[in-house]
Each structure stands twice: as C-alpha cells, then as structure tokens.
Amino acid sequence: GSVQSKEELDGYLNPIVNGAVFAAFIASGQTSKEGTRIMVKEPIYNEFVRKLVDKTKVFRMGDPENMDMSTGPVITEKQLHYIERKVDEGIQSDPDTLQILCRGKRCTGFEGEDAHLNEGNWYEPTVVAARLEAPPDEGSIDRLQSSDVLFQSELFSLVVALVPFHSLTQAVRLANGTLYGLGCSIWTSDLSRAHRTPDAVHAGIVWINDHHKNHPSSPWGSLTKASGVRTESMRARSTPRRRAWCSILARSRATGFGIWTLNTIISVIDVSFLWTCGCLG
Asked: What element of type H or E holds 174?
C-alpha cells in the first residue's frame, strides 16, 4: 500500500526502529546473533536512517550495575582496538560512499565519580551508513557489501551499518552475501509474505516481528560456513534445519511494512515490506 501521511509513516517506523536497535545493541552488541547490517528500501532509506541515528544518540554508557545506563564496555582492550581498526578501515575503503552519522570512536568522556571508567574499554554506539545525500546505485551497493569489512566482519560491538536496496531480489542477495548466518529477523504486517521469503535466506533461525527470542528446546545452529558449531538441542535431528518464530505486528491502515534481521544486521525496508536482515555468527 501507499503511505497516506508522514504521521502514519512515523507511527509505523518508530516501533520498527526500536526493534532494529534492540536487535543490534542488546548485550552491548556482544552476542552472536546481533543484527548489525541494515538494508533499507531506497525510497524511505533517509527517513529510517535519521530515526535510527536519533534513537542511538540517547544511549548512555556507564557502569552496567547502574540501571540508568543503556550500554556497557567491550570485553577486552584487544577487542576495543579491533573495533577501532575495523571501523577506520571500513570508512577509509570507500569514503565517498560511507559516512559515520553517529559517534564512532572510543568513549573517554566520563567525569566526576565516573572518571575512573575512562580507563575501561568503551566504544560508543555507532551508526555507519551509505551517504544520505547521494545513495549508491545497485551495483555500488553490491560491491560495498561484498568487500567492505563493516559488512563482512563480526565486530561484537555497538556498531551498525546501513545501505539502501532497490529490489527484494537484491535484498536477499545481500543478506546471503556473507560467511555468517546464525539468525535473521523479518518485521512485517504481511505475514504471508514474511513466511515465504525466509526460504531464500541462508539463516539458521528466522524471527518474524521479533528478535533474540527462542525456546530453550528448539534447534540452534547455522546454515552457513562460519556461524556456530553445527546444531544444538537434543531434538535437532527430528526437526527442520530452520526454525521460525512469529509475533503479530499491528497492521498500519496505510501500509504493510516489514523488517528483517539476520546475523550481521541487515535491515531491509520497503514501503510495502520493511525488512531488517543481518548475518550473525
């Protein structure tokens, strides 16, 4: 369907942005099923990216035992240096296409009684995206996703990378263009389409209108090369390789969006079907 007003678009995108942020940043970005690549349908790419940046800017870093804080530190100093290096490499490899829209550096701004935290391994919640003023064409996006370290590495960090896509075929191609494939999520009010599309995606688990949730007894594993170690769960032998979990998302009167999240998060957003896809390890 077509969007009738900005208010209706906002009303639908806002909870989806919340879902994408949850998929990407839970546990300070340090689980194997984070959604860290985001693909967005080109017509609404700019609006979604702006909303995601605004949401990310409110994150507060600090002592994990302080319930007012949003995120904690990176696990080791070695990992912190790895994240810094990969973000720099990713931007420098294609500075005409990619830009840092939110933060993008080590956090050393703690003051007062929290000043001692400056000695820790803190990396700011970061949004990297294809330039809003001149989104790349389809061929450029394919080349970027296949070669840039931000789309082909597992950073285990608070770093999310976004690009637009031009067709569902391209979105699936980009989602599968990685070594990783532990999980994926799709967000949409079109449940029929949501249940058909995952068959084309190489992910061990597919969430629909949710992320990070699975029953302890369900199979857990990957369909791709570098994600996980085979399949967990005693029941895995008698169940399908892919398990889908579905939650109902209220349908917008004007649109039917959806989101996907796969391993390294890809978000796919369309005016009639909104995804967030990623490739997790």
From this structure: helix 168-176
* 8 A C-beta contact, residue 278 and residue 219: no
Structure tokens at 221: 């594993």
How far is Cα of residue 195 from the mean position of the Cα atoms in its chain?
20
**Dihedral angle sign, alpha carbons of residues 69, 54, 147, 280:** positive
**Contact between 74 and 157 (Cβ < 8 Å):** yes
Q: How far is CA 4 from the centre of its chain?
A: 27
Place of tokens 């605004």: 54
Which is nearest to 79 in space by CA: 109, 38, 114, 120?
Answer: 120
Report field, pTM of the whole predicted structure over 0.90: no
Element (H, E) at 10: helix 6-25
Q: What phi, psi does 78 have (nearest 5°)?
A: -60, -45
- Left (φ > 0), alpha (ψ -120 to 50) or beta: where does 217 sit? alpha
pLDDT tens string 105-149: 999 999 999 999 999 999 999 999 999 888 789 999 999 988 999
Rounded CA separation 88/48 (Å): 24
